[in-house]
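From the pipeline queue, job 12 of 40. The input is one protein chain; the requested action is below.

Action: predict structure.
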Amino acid sequence: MSGTFAGAKPSDARDLRDALRGCAAGDRASLRLIYDLESPAMIGVAMRILRRRDLAEEAVHDTFMRVWQKAASFDPARGEARSWLYAVLRHRALNILRGEKRTDQVEDFDTLGLESEDESPEACVARLSDEKALKRCLEQLEPARRNAIVLAYVQGLTHGELAGRLGLPLGTVKSWIRRSLVTLKECMA
């Protein structure tokens, strides 16, 4: 097979290559074409890696966001457009899989919803009911680490964004988040 996936027509390969060029130029219709051509198969690939529909959909969504942002980095001299798309998907799915294995989701986190983007982490914790185990466990964390956890899980800040906001090295923030999640998990158990 000449570089195309099973069932793919050569015209699809050209369409994808042209659509990636269109995305690089900011053409939303090109992104839609890629979505129409590939999203069903991409969900299937992501499901095989992640084994959960919600995570597979997240991986595909994130992949299309990345395609929109990074389409200009596709080089047809280095490979087929479809191969590039699925490499982006696989990379994202594996990152999600690693994240899921590292941190077990705490069902109580969704009760931390922010009232506004400007609300402080302390205000979020204070709004939790005193009976909530999560509030009790969060209050056991050192204040700076508690703020990092709340900013990451409530405001959705990445480790890099947290490092910038808190003025700390990236490795320190990653370590704080990892250790704090372990502490919270143990406390909630």
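Job complete. The chain has nine helices and no strands.
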